[in-house]
């Protein structure tokens, strides 16, 4: 893994009109044209300046909470047992179905602000708690509303295939066909950037998922997957075979999956916050994966059941302690590699000329401190596309 390129006494020139970076280099070398016309100067006062975090896996749109399950798990009842008792995704589905579009928007917007406050300037956001045609459409409308209002970049993912809803428990294929048929609505309307499927014994089999993926391919849609979360189901290799942009979770990935991912363009997105919060699986073998040549991203998996977590630095802490990743690997995993996991690496994820000015300033001097200062928010300033959203710890939105 490459070392992190660091510049000291550096300056960044931003074109406020385009929101793009026009200069990166020594403080002393700022081109005269950058300084003409009374430019606004933001002094980082020697603090760490880095690209905004990219969270490439969240389930931001839901109503209700599952705090009771959090404590039940701590008392020894497993995630799967809770789901079998009527909790889990199904419980959030019920509260999400009974919320209005406006309520869902407000709840998701407050969560989005928390992400921004923590330095996340690009977010991927999935539906998947409606689980009926109408409810999923409403969740995707909310995601589109959020993407229009958000100062940062938001990527929109349709995840009707999160779970088979109870109405279709005995007629699974009908629901699978419904999700496959719905893809056309999202593709034709330009209403999503990706679609996602939870391929798992708890959710959709590969045979069921293949029906959806075949339709997605016909429509030219981009796929991401929840894969090999609890065991080696062969889904990582299946994700590669189906040209998924990203395969996520991978707690149970085996040697075949690792070599398939290493030889592919599919990014391995690891979610250690989920294992920490829910205790329902193994941490992914990140060391083996990186050493084999997999491109690894880290994300929060923000959701009400298995990871109600907003902070990518906290995810980095877990990646260091539980998956033995280095500081440089973690930094790359929450910036440029996560941008790759969203197909956006050409336009964000690093501080380079021509990229979006998505930049954060942190109350520390070195990137090593992000994972090390556990559970605190070091982000003092947030700039999204050249716009100052947070300055000296105060949010302006
Ligand atoms: O990514 N794995 C599947 N779905 C979510 C869990 C959602 C929930 O429990 O509400 C996840 O961890
Ligand atoms: Fe997820």
List strands and helices in order, with pairings.
Elements: E1 10-15, E2 20-26, H1 32-35, E3 48-51, E4 53-55, H2 67-74, H3 79-84, H4 89-97, H5 101-117, E5 120-126, H6 133-149, E6 153-161, H7 172-188, E7 194-198, H8 206-218, E8 223-227, H9 235-241, E9 246-249, H10 255-262, E10 267-270, H11 272-278, H12 286-292, E11 296-298, H13 312-323, H14 327-333, H15 336-341, E12 359-362, H16 369-372, E13 379-384, E14 387-391, E15 394-395
Parallel strand pairs: 4-5, 5-6, 6-7, 7-8, 8-9, 9-10, 10-11
Antiparallel strand pairs: 1-2, 3-12, 12-13, 13-14, 14-15
N-(iminomethyl)-L-glutamic acid binds next to helix 4.
Describe the structure.
The chain is an alpha/beta fold and 397 residues long. The protein has two domains: 10-51 and 353-395, Urease, subunit C, domain 1, CATH 2.30.40; 53-341, Alpha-Beta Barrel (TIM Barrel), CATH 3.20.20.140. The protein is 38% helix and 19% strand. The chain has an eight-stranded parallel beta sheet with strand order 4-5-6-7-8-9-10-11. A five-stranded antiparallel beta sheet has the order 3-12-13-14-15, with no helix packed on it. The two termini are 37 Å apart. Bound molecules: N-(iminomethyl)-L-glutamic acid and fe (iii) ion (FE). Residues 57, 59, 226, 301, 303 line the site of fe (iii) ion (FE).
